[in-house]
Specification:
This protein is of the alpha/beta class. Helices cover 28% and strands 18% of the residues. It contains 9 helices and 16 strands. The site of magnesium ion has 3 residues, from loops.
């Protein structure tokens, strides 16, 4: 299939390309679109066939539900069967933005969107191109990340092209994603509310609206095999480059000593900016040590870069767990298949 590349950098001058994306979506096609978190692979959430094509194009396991994207609060009425007061407060506080709420699903949403669960995950993106596209279509768009299942999520149009060119109808080519990791996912279908996936909205921010929120154990630890999980997506090996990633928990000096003792062809270090000096192996950096937002913005690009540079084993620095660091840690530990060595 020829994948149309539709450049939309300016909403006014590129509006014809956005119209074309909208036309494809309305006729049941698949379109990758930018959002502030990562690029998403969108289809009409009401079109069962289009939704099943998303799973096929990504090679996504059927039991991993999709997030439905909306552009205005009225769209919610058709998607959920219950709207708790807390959900309204969260919507007011965190939307539009990198925040996803899981609520009871209405009958209008095909079961396949939610992988058969009785809940549905919903988000209102702040990215102007995404918001305009959804609004133009007048349809909620089901959209997981626009990568091949298992590989690092795409934060640039080039990443989407590398994974999905020839497999989907079109890609809206726009700016790199600002946040760089996927949205924060919170279920409000349980009491107390539960953080299922950390992201651009931090736990500290969530607690201001949801003081009793609990962290699902899959956020930091490896899910137990063959046990049901609250967020099916968290049980899969994820975000992984082809090279093996191992996290080394310790100070910079011990990190350098350990990595240098392993130095050979194909060994790389994934470090914070400015930490290259004491290392005898090639490095890729992923943001400032004390600024997790900068780490989130480049992490997935850094993971893809390791493969491009021919890395076979990569030793990675460990981010701290506060603020957006929780999201960075959550992604990196999955890329490392939970392999952490304490120095
Ligand atoms: P992605 O769209 O690729 O970022 O993945 C969506 C994430 O949202 C996955 O981790 C899913 O497990 C999670 N998710 C989507 N819908 C639900 C739901 N109804 N209940 C719990 N988690 C969900
Ligand atoms: Mg994904």
């Amino acid at each position: 299939m020829n994948t149309e590349k539709l450049k939309v950098f300016n909403l006014k001058s590129d509006s014809k390309n956005l119209d074309r994306a909208c036309e494809i979506l309305k006729s049941g096609g698949l379109v990758a679109m930018p959002t502030e978190t990562v690029y998403g692979l969108a289809a009409s959430a009401y079109d069962e066939k289009a939704v099943s094509n998303i799973f096929a194009a990504k090679g996504r396991p059927q039991d991993n539900p999709l997030i439905v994207h909306i552009s205005n609060i009225e769209m919610l009425n058709d998607l959920v069967s219950e709207m708790p007061k807390k959900a309204i407060e969260c919507a007011e506080r965190f939307w539009p933005g990198p925040f996803t709420m899981v609520l009871k699903r209405s009958e209008k949403i095909p079961a396949s969107v939610s992988a058969g669960l009785d809940t549905v995950a919903i988000r209102m993106p702040s990215n102007q191109v995404a918001a305009e596209l959804i609004e133009k279509c007048g349809l909620p768009l089901a959209a997981p990340s626009a990568n091949l299942s298992g590989s690092p999520s795409p934060t640039t149009a080039e990443h989407v092209i590398a994974d999905l060119d020839g497999k989907i109808d079109a890609i809206v080519v726009s700016e790199p994603c600002e946040v760089g990791v996927e949205s924060t996912v919170v279920t409000l279908a349980t009491n107390p509310p539960r953080l299922l996936r950390p992201g651009g909205i931090t736990l500290e921010q969530l607690k201001e609206v949801l003081p009793d929120i609990v962290i699902d154990k899959a956020v930091l630890a490896e899910p137990e095999k063959n046990k049901p999980v609250a967020s099916p997506g968290m049980k899969y090996k994820h975000y992984a480059p082809k090279s093996k990633v191992i996290m080394l928990d310790g100070n910079l000096q011990d990190f350098c000593k350990y990595v240098n003792s392993k130095a050979e062809n194909g060994v790389f270090a994934l470090v914070f900016d400015g930490e290259e000096e004491g290392l005898m192996v090639p490095t890729v950096s992923f943001g400032k040590r004390d600024d997790a937002a900068t780490q989130a913005a480049v992490l997935f690009d850094a993971l893809r870069l390791l493969d491009k540079k021919g890395c076979s084993i990569c030793y990675a620095r460990v981010p701290t767990l506060d603020g957006m660091g929780l999201a960075v840690y959550n992604r990196l530990i999955r890329a490392a298949a939970f392999e952490v060595i304490t120095l």
